[in-house]
Amino acid sequence: MRISIIGTGYVGLVSGVCLADLGHEVICVDIDAAKVARIERGDAPIVEKDLTELLRRNIGSRLRATTDLAAAVRDSEITIIAVGTPFDGESIDLTYIQGASREIGAAMAALDRYHVVVVKSTVVPGTTDDVVTPLLEEGSGRRAGPDFGVCMNPEFLREGEAIDDFMNPDRIVVGGIDERAQSVLMDVYAQFDVPKVCTSNRTAEMIKYASNAFLATTISFANEIANLSAAVGVDAMEVMEGLHLDKRLSPILPDGSRITPGLLSYLSPGCGFGGSCFPKDVKALIAFGQARQLPMRLLSEVIEVNRRQPAEMVRRLKRHYPDLRGVPVAVLGVAFKPGTDDIRESPALPIIQELRSLGAKVSILDPIASGHLIRETGWSDLIVLETLADAVAQADALLIVTRWPEFAELPALVSRRHVVIDGRRIVPKGIACTYEGIGLE
Ligand SMILES: NC(=O)c1ccc[n+]([C@@H]2O[C@H](COP(=O)([O-])OP(=O)(O)OC[C@H]3O[C@@H](n4cnc5c(N)ncnc54)[C@H](O)[C@@H]3O)[C@@H](O)[C@H]2O)c1
Question: Does the annotation mark 277 as catalytic?
Fold first, then answer.
């Protein structure tokens, strides 16, 4: 099929290269001309495993990038909206969605055939029907239903595993105003032999929020239990291991072995969740409920537990250095999770901010995200480290913030003079230095 994708961030670009690789003709559109130029050169503007390879395999043949939205809509049968939907401090910010919808509507005015518009961005229930569709009708002068279709197709990919997740989805949710629109979207995913949930746009929107809110809740639940466990002298890792063995969480197969669901990694002590989705989506859902006189009490606490969790790292460090002025502290990991250079809402941000305000001499180590952090924050006083050995040589205290696998090498490098605060519980507590871990006394 001929597909145009509006917005070439994590979701738009990954969707674009994957759909092109699957044989579709894809045009990626962005307002950022520099990003478009990079994509056209085969130079991925974000870091994702296998992205560059797939981009280079398809760019110039089945994949193109442009800033010309109108031409892209004209040259395609289906247009996927994948622009950002940030939280503006009070509610979801639909500015980019509205802007893209207006432009697509104007472009559709020139069409004399049926076209389908798909909202892939995460939007609160009702947005596709009550905000996007009217703007498309207004801009095009055409009617949703007979003249064009509107679908909602939430994306579940995880950064760091984005290509694999897109290519091997666990489900595909296909919302739509009618069967005709849904069947066009179904054709896009014809090659995927997975459960497809055909539903209303509103339900599709709600499924995405329920999924993210549930995952965020499991993380804050684990962290709340971890903090209490630590306070009463119990290791939360042991508690979680015991919890994981519930057969409803790790089903037992006939041969006695266990299935280890990915969910268990969320039920683990840590310094909090971050990223471009969980924090903003849970906050948007809370605001959405609040506006309907339905306070989301549980989710409000999920956010509050998470807001406090990074401070637990500095609190533990201060047990060893009540005065942090001049103390060399290395923050290991600034990306919000391994496998990505995305630092949005990373727990590293409040941790580094607090360390700087307390006068520590802060250095950072991250395989791919350090430059990004310095550019975004302007914290030019931070020392950027290249290797774990450098971090161990230069710092007295080491704070593990991101679960990068390479940080598991730490036990072989540290000595008695070091203090390690493990925010991801990835090194053994018997390590040959002063060790503190989240969820450990
Ligand atoms: N990042 C994830 O892991 C993830 C996963 C699932 C769902 N989502 C959702 O997908 C959406 C996109 O997220 P993202 O992380 O890819 O965002 P992003 O910020 O990385 O990318 C958005 C892109 O849209 C472009 N854009 C904005 N307005 C435009 C317009 N009018 N025309 C063309 N381009 C325009 C921006 O320049 C930017 O490149 C959000 O709603 C997000 O919640 C994200």
Answer: yes
- Give the ranges where 336-413 is alpha helix by DSSP (H): 348-357, 370-377, 388-394
Does the beta carbon of 36 lie inside 6 Å of ligand 1?
Answer: no
Protein residue whose Cα sits closest to atom 26 of ligand 1: 7
The domains spanning 2-199 and 237-437 adopt the same CATH topology: yes
Nearest alpha carbon, ligand 1 atom 28:
96
Question: What does the pLDDT look like over 118-142, one tens digit per residue?
Answer: 999 999 999 999 999 999 999 999 9
| CA gap 121, 170 in Å, rounded | 18
Q: What is the pLDDT of residues 256-302, one digit of tens each?
A: 999 999 999 999 999 999 999 999 999 999 999 999 999 999 999 99
Let me know the angle formed at the C-alpha of 431 by 426 and 432, rounded to the nearest 5 degrees.
150
CA of 7 to the centre of ligand 1 (A): 6
CATH class of 2-199: alpha beta
CA distance 427 to 437: 9
Evaluate: CB of 155 within 6 angstroms of ligand 1. yes
Tell me, using a 6 A CB cutoff, whether residue 153 lines ligand 1: no
Measured distance CA(393)–CA(432) in Å, rounded = 15
Domain limits of the chain? 2-199, 237-437
Q: Which atom of ligand 1 is nearest to the CA of 6?
A: 33
CATH of 237-437, one of 3.10.129.10, 3.40.50.720, 3.50.50.60, 3.40.50.150: 3.40.50.720
Nearest CA to ligand 1 atom 27: 83
Label residue 167 by pLDDT band (50, 70, 90): very high
- pTM across the whole model: 0.96
